[in-house]
């Protein structure tokens, strides 16, 4: 698994997940519980990960839609 993006903006995560689902790429959101524990003030970023073999396609899909990805 590789990290695709990290953000404190839940709308970016939701948009990225929808884009990846549309491309048939499975993804998993991590650090969700940390952001809940800190009270939703956006202190801890949530991360989106994908399988190693899907990383290139996923990164391209997000970049093509204006979402910056972690390299």
TrEMBL record:
Natural source organism: Thalassobius vesicularis
Signal peptide location: none
Domain of life: Bacteria
One Pfam match: DUF2007
Domain DUF2007 intervals: 1-64
Protein name according to UniProt: DUF2007 domain-containing protein
InterPro entries xrefs: DUF2007, N-reg_PII-like_a/b
């Amino acid at each position: 698994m590789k990290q695709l993006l990290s953000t404190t903006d839940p709308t970016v995560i939701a948009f990225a997940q929808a884009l990846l689902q549309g491309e048939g790429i499975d993804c998993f959101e991590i650090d969700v519980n940390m952001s809940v524990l800190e009270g939703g003030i956006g202190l801890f970023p949530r991360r989106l990960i994908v399988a190693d073999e899907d990383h290139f396609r996923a990164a391209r899909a997000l970049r093509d839609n204006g979402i910056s990805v972690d390299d």
